[in-house]
Amino acid sequence: MNSLLYLDVSWNTLSNTRDEMAVLRKYMPVLSVLDIRHNYWQKPEGLRLRIIGRLKTLTKLDGVQVGDEETAAALRMAAGSRISQVSLLMHSRTDTEPLRTLSLQTHAHTLAMYSNKKPDRAVDLDNNWYLKVTTLNLDGQHISKLSNLERLENLQWASFNNNDLTKIEGLDNCQKLEELSLESNCITRIEGLTRLEQLRHLNLSHNYIDCLEHTGFDRLPQLHYLDLEDNCITSLAGLQRALSLTELYISNNLVESVREIFYLKVCL
């Protein structure tokens, strides 16, 4: 397959852009022509640029020639999809207390919008500025993977809404995290949260989650708020382990029986 130049996978049930393109990039390094039309891609908006940015040898995608300007735009998007030191400095704050406001937005959003307390790399030698970061808002950055967060040991409020994430990962060292928002991504499983024992607020709405079992809710003793709206959930089994829940949002899913509410008896 290393010499394959043309591939047509149209009219299938492919959905996960990150995983599928990783396979193509690894095993078809000289692929020139690709047709992926009529599949079930997650977040189809911006799909073309995401694929061109990852498969740099493409000259034609879905029957349309790849131009120089399009390639440049795709490469810029790909470069911005990685969490770098620059993006952390730009989008983080060091406030130790949330702002007092009547806004219904999360602390990560309000602090990013109204606070001017950014970390100062020039003042803090030896990268000590990482330890001062309490807030991170990386909404809408085309991020495909949560990485380079291991030094943010005092992070309390974080938002990664409207990105291209397919997996919850990279948060094991952020054990002071109280608020986490991952709305509008491509996440299919709840995982990677079991070390976040201080987590109180979790937003996973507008994703592709279909199961709530084996999620580690029993390892989140402070979890009070959970938003799972607009997913593909068919059963509430697993929520009985979220013993501290006081707010649950689960509209617009695929639950078929009102009897599913019995799984909530333990946490109500």
TrEMBL record:
<dbReference type="InterPro" id="IPR001611">
    <property type="entry name" value="Leu-rich_rpt"/>
</dbReference>
<dbReference type="InterPro" id="IPR025875">
    <property type="entry name" value="Leu-rich_rpt_4"/>
</dbReference>
<dbReference type="InterPro" id="IPR032675">
    <property type="entry name" value="LRR_dom_sf"/>
</dbReference>
<dbReference type="Pfam" id="PF12799">
    <property type="entry name" value="LRR_4"/>
</dbReference>
<dbReference type="Pfam" id="PF13855">
    <property type="entry name" value="LRR_8"/>
</dbReference>
<keyword id="KW-0677">Repeat</keyword>
<keyword id="KW-0433">Leucine-rich repeat</keyword>
<dbReference type="InterPro" id="IPR050836">
    <property type="entry name" value="SDS22/Internalin_LRR"/>
</dbReference>
<dbReference type="InterPro" id="IPR003591">
    <property type="entry name" value="Leu-rich_rpt_typical-subtyp"/>
</dbReference>
<protein>
    <submittedName>
        <fullName>Uncharacterized protein</fullName>
    </submittedName>
</protein>
